[in-house]
């Protein structure tokens, strides 16, 4: 799903009207591009994609579907072979009927959405649904060669009873006999899906038809927890088993069609209809799109066919999306292993169907349009966020969901959140460390900045490791917490540990979780082991002795994943005080020689003087010596020499999020030094005897992405001789004054 | 009504070439007046921006921003966390707009009088009071006409895009020149102060003088470009000690351009 990036939306809203004003037209000539051949196989060769575990293959589908482009209905016959790979015995099969979310106002999905989703309004009366007309059992544990789903069965199947559950987005099929471990069943279903007008991800808009979550799909049987087929809610979509799809689509002859997998055949039985055959392998879903207005744009990346289906008015953007796609592939293959499939299809939705933009399906995703910022002068605005980020993000889901098929309902952060983390790294890998995503008047907004600005607003309202339906849509934290906060927690850990251990952990996790249903525990365990080593903690400073600053990885993850708080540090004080002096009485050391006894006359005088002023004479026990206080002690700290002061920096932890943090301290002599606090206590004082502190900066390298508020992170020392003016408020004041001068514009003459 | 405004443009071609420059000379010949206006403008802007500046300073407490590469993020954080800053800035801008509008009405007679060569301060400033009702009424007509022209100006931009911009500027400047003319007719030539015909005649008058129209539009566009450009520069430059003086200098330039445009209406009477 698309990140709810308020900034990107704001940017688009800002640029849109400006460009509308300068009237960017496009000529009517429809360009065409040289096609890249469709690969023969849906999977890349094993040498490129690696080995796919045999036991990951659970379910196969054969679907014959016809699109009625007038009523926007899909009539289909579906045969499915499902294997019980657990030690459980089941007597019922749950199916998702996702499209029923859009059937009525009282479905759980619509009740949560209340008629709007990501700024899109539901078109009144344009309901969508899936109705199942027939369910039959065709066979039980058939011999392997009889598994050919495309063959019409020799004898009719046994009708099965089925009923929708409380929420219409799932139904349960009752089996006449239970299915035991290792056994399989072959079912045939007949269904009709009516697409809603595009509102959220799927549906039609004019001739455009986006068929996502359009067929009855079986749930996942887990060894420990049994059947998992969640009610379709606002914030989660996927959880399904891997398998192969053979899909036949009967569509109008002039429609351009894109689908998961590869196209293996195309026939035209009549003048006005065509029949397309698609094959997708080792995927957990199948989606397709059809629109007569699509222009096809082609590209290739190491044998992967990249096909874009793009609306004529945005055809010039195809190269930008292709470049973003290539950046994403380069970064993610290097970090998370090879992309296993041979195709990628990128769909650009038409104007008016924006609700379908920014959605992921196996080997096919929809993106969003670029806001044409390149038509504005570069000194005013440059950006690589609109459209580009969506492409990077939706492709990222090919890994974090498509390949690592976690339960999005139970742990949405493993899907959207890890993907968002990976998206940032795509930018880093492509453009350098923490690069800008937008420049306004030449001032950069970087990947870290975007996360921070999102976290500031709703980042502390929810913990991120919780099921999708635990997020209250009215609290409004799902997007920030699931996407940005996960990225902040993950990338902060990466920065703290020195990046390489985190990278290693993620490589290991993605290797182990390919074609699996990984959960958060696996990821946490991997991070703790790779970063924390045997005892789960990493020494950030020191070698284990006193003064060592530890990063306890599990403790960090517990706070980051299961606490609502985000980190927040503040400088309480930065200053200098007189160094502890040596004046006063001290016992003489054993080797210290006795000072010469002063003459008696001197002693008498001292006694007399002391009694005159009413205090004790400077005479003490014989083993003690008295050191005099130096004159400079009486001076103000500003007048003391640097060697006579002790600089101090006090940092406060203002939230319950305990995390180690760097503090950069600048001294009067121009030197700078970085110290680290473990962040465990409520506050901490760093002391610098004999050195005068001039400035301190908490988290100077912005390693803590999980700490979005940084205005209180730096301060000049108290009583600084000549503190520079505060640049931010000066700048804002200057802008205000310049804007006033502009409005006054020659005093309005 | 007034003979001079109806005077045919009998001047030779050579004279007409230098006509806008003679108008500029009227401005240059009144340096004290220009500088006084500039000082008033600087003072006003400084005062109006005071609360915003103070709010931003207070919001930063004793902290200081430390990373130039993340300035935009910091400003955004400040504006999100301290809404009073944005509120103060927005308020100052609307106050500026109101003051500019009021000034434009009240100061028109003194400006016209001074550009016409009058040196008596009492007479110059007295004109503001004497002509106030007329200025309010004529400016009211001007506002209606301006709304009409501004919506017309949107058409070429919508049709031609950036290419339509010159035509749009020409259309958008026209009502300003007409108002200059109407005010000049009232203040300098005793035209009927409240009558709509005074304004309607001014429309025809300027429309028949392409040189005025063209140069006026050019001057007004330059004025806009200079003040808006300076604002953009201040934003782009980031915190810099001398940055605000760019905007202040641009304010002076804008002021001179504005007076130059008004001087066209004064000079026209001599043409
Ligand atoms: Zn997503």
Automatic annotation (TrEMBL), chain A:
One Pfam family cited in the UniProt record for this chain: Peptidase_M1
InterPro entries, A to Z: M1_LTA4H, Peptidase_M1_dom, Peptidase_M4/M1_CTD_sf
Gene3D superfamilies xrefs: Neutral Protease Domain 2
Residue ranges of domain Peptidase M1 membrane alanine aminopeptidase in the record: 322-527
Any GO molecular function: zinc ion binding
Listed name of the protein: Peptidase M1 membrane alanine aminopeptidase domain-containing protein
Lineage, uppermost ranks: Bacteria, Pseudomonadati, Myxococcota, Polyangia, Nannocystales
UniProtKB/TrEMBL annotation, chain B:
Claim: Transmembrane helix is one of the keywords in the record: yes
Domain of life: Bacteria
Organism: Enhygromyxa salina
Keywords of the record: Membrane, Transmembrane, Transmembrane helix
Stated name of the protein: Uncharacterized protein
Transmembrane segments: 23-44, 84-108, 120-141, 153-179, 211-237, 243-264
Lineage of the organism: Bacteria, Pseudomonadati, Myxococcota, Polyangia, Nannocystales
């Amino acid at each position: 799903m698309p990140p709810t990036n308020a900034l990107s939306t704001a940017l688009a809203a800002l640029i849109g009207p400006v460009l509308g004003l300068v009237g960017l037209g496009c000529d009517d000539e429809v360009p065409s591009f040289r096609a890249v051949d469709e690969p023969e196989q849906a999977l890349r060769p094993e040498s490129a994609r690696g080995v796919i575990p045999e036991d990951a293959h659970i379910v196969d589908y054969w679907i014959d579907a016809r699109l009625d482009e007038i009523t926007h209905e899909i009539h289909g016959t579906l045969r499915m072979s499902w294997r019980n790979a657990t030690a459980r015995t089941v007597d019922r099969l749950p199916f998702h009927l996702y499209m029923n979310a859009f059937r009525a106002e009282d479905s759980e999905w619509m009740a949560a959405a209340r008629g709007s989703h990501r700024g899109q309004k539901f078109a009144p009366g344009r309901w969508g649904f899936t109705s199942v007309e027939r369910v039959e059992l065709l066979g039980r544990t058939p011999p392997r060669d009889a598994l050919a789903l495309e063959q019409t069965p020799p004898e009719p199947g046994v009708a099965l009873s089925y009923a929708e559950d409380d929420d219409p987005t799932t139904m349960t099929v009752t089996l006449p006999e239970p299915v035991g471990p290792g056994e399989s069943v072959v079912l045939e279903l007949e269904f009709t899906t009516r697409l809603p007008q595009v509102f959220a991800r799927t549906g039609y808009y004019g001739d455009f038809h986006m068929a996502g979550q359009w067929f009855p799909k079986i749930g996942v049987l887990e060894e420990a927890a049994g059947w998992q087929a969640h009610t379709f809610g606002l914030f989660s979509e996927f959880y399904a088993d891997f398998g192969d799809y053979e899909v036949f689509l009967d569509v109008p002859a002039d429609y351009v069609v894109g689908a998961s997998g590869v196209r293996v055949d195309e026939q035209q039985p009549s003048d006005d209809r065509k029949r397309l055959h698609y094959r997708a392998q080792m995927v957990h879903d199948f989606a397709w799109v059809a629109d007569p207005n699509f222009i096809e744009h082609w590209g290739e990346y190491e044998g992967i066919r990249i096909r874009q289906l793009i609306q004529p008015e945005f055809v010039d953007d195809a190269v930008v999306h292709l470049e973003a796609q290539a950046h994403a592939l380069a970064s993610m293959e290097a970090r998370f292993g090879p992309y296993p499939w041979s195709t990628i299809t990128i769909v650009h939705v038409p104007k008016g169907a924006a609700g379908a933009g920014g959605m992921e399906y196996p080997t096919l995703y929809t993106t969003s349009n670029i806001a044409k910022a390149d038509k504005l002068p570069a000194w005013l605005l440059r950006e690589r966020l609109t459209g580009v980020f969506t492409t990077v993000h939706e492709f990222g889901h090919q890994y974090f969901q498509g390949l690592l098929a976690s339960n999005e309902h139970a742990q949405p952060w493993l899907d959207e959140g890890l993907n968002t983390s990976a998206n940032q790294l795509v930018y880093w890998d492509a453009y350098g460390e923490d690069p800008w995503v937008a420049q306004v008047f030449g001032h950069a907004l970087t990947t870290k900045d975007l996360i921070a600005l999102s976290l500031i607003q709703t980042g502390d309202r929810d913990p991120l490791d919780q099921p999708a339906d635990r997020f209250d849509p009215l609290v409004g934290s799902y997007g920030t917490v699931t996407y940005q906060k996960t990225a902040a927690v993950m990338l902060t850990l990466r920065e703290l540990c020195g990046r390489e251990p985190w990278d290693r952990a993620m490589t290991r996790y993605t290797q182990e979780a390919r074609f699996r249903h990984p959960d958060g525990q696996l990821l946490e365990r991997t991070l703790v082991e790779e970063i924390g080593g045997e005892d789960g903690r990493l020494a950030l400073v020191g070698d284990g002795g006193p003064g060592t600053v530890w990063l306890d990885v599990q403790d960090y993850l517990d706070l980051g994943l299961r606490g609502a708080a985000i980190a927040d540090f503040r400088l309480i004080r930065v200053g200098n005080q007189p160094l502890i002096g040596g004046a006063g009485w001290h016992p003489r050391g054993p080797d210290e020689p006795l000072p010469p006894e002063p003459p008696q006359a001197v002693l008498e005088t001292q006694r007399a003087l002391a009694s005159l002023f009413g205090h004790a004479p400077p005479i003490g026990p014989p083993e003690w010596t008295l050191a005099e206080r130096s004159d400079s002690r009486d001076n103000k700290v500003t007048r003391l020499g640097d060697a006579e002061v002790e600089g101090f920096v006090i940092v406060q932890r203002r939230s319950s999020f305990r995390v180690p943090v760097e503090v950069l301290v600048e001294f009067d002599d121009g030197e700078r030094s970085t110290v680290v606090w473990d962040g465990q206590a409520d506050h901490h004082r760093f002391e610098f005897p004999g050195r005068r502190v001039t400035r301190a900066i908490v988290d100077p390298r912005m390693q803590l992405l999980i700490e979005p508020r940084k205005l209180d992170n730096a301060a000049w020392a108290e009583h600084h001789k000549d503190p520079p003016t505060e640049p931010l408020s000066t700048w804002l004041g200057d802008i205000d004054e310049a804007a006033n001068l502009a409005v006054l514009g020659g005093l309005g003459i | 009504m007034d003979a001079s405004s109806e005077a045919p443009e009998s001047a030779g071609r050579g004279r007409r070439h230098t006509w806008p420059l003679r108008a500029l000379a009227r401005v240059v010949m009144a340096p004290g007046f220009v500088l006084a206006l500039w000082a008033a403008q600087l003072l006003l802007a400084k005062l109006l921006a005071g609360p915003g500046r103070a709010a931003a300073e207070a919001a930063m407490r004793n902290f200081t921003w430390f990373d130039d590469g993340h300035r935009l993020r910091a400003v955004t954080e400040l504006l999100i966390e301290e809404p009073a800053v944005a509120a103060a800035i927005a308020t100052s801008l609307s106050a500026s707009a109101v003051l500019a509008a009021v000034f434009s009405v009240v100061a028109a007679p003194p400006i016209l009088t001074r550009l016409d060569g009058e040196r008596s301060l009492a007479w110059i400033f007295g004109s503001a009071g004497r002509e106030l009702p007329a200025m309010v009424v004529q400016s009211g007509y001007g506002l209606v006409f301006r709304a009409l022209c501004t919506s017309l100006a949107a058409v070429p931009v919508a049709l031609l895009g950036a290419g339509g911009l010159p035509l749009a500027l020409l259309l958008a400047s026209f009502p300003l020149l007409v108002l200059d003319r109407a005010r000049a007719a009232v203040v300098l030539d005793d035209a009927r102060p409240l009558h709509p015909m005074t304004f309607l005649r001014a429309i025809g008058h300027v429309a028949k003088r392409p040189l005025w129209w063209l140069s006026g539009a050019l001057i007004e566009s330059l004025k806009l470009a200079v003040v808006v450009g300076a604002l953009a520069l201040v934003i782009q430059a980031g915190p810099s000690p001398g940055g605000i003086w760019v905007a202040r200098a641009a304010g002076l330039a804008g002021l001179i351009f504005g007076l130059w445009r008004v001087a066209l209406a004064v000079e026209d009477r001599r043409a």
